[in-house]
Each structure stands twice: as structure tokens, then as C-alpha cells.
Design a protein that fits this description.
By secondary structure, the protein is mainly alpha-helical. It has a domain of 41 residues. It contains 2 helices and no strands. The radius of gyration is 14 Å and the shape is globular. The termini are far apart.
């Protein structure tokens, strides 16, 4: 069995809670123009508690990121 022979259950994987939209380009202030997260928020995303991630997602709705 290789490392790639496993069953993938997307419902139990944390990626579902990520606001990433696949447009990963950072402005001069280190904010992603795709998901509007700061570079540190992207890097530390899976280290944050679910409560912290939900707070960031709530903030993203009002966050404006200039290119």
C-alpha cells in the first residue's frame, strides 16, 4: 500500500472551513487579494481554534483589500 492509497473523507478535513478561493496573490500589505486574509492568517489557519477561524471569516465579509 502506498501513501496515496487511503480513503479521503472531505467532511472530516479542515479545508472545508478555509475561505481560500484559489487566487493566492498578495498585495504590498501582505493581504491575499483572493480570500482577503493576511499572510499570517493563511499560514497559521490550521493552528487557530475553530472559534478564531469563524471570527476571521466574519471579519472578511467587511474587509477591503486593495491590489
Amino acid at each position: 500500500m502506498s501513501n496515496h492509497d487511503y480513503v479521503y473523507d472531505k467532511d472530516s478535513f479542515l479545508i472545508d472551513s478555509s475561505p481560500c478561493v484559489g487566487i493566492c496573490f498578495y498585495n504590498v500589505y501582505e493581504y491575499c487579494i483572493g480570500c482577503k486574509r493576511h499572510e499570517r492568517e493563511v499560514i497559521d489557519w490550521y493552528d487557530y481554534s475553530e472559534e478564531m477561524r469563524q471570527g476571521i471569516i466574519k471579519d472578511l465579509k467587511e474587509r477591503r483589500v486593495d491590489v
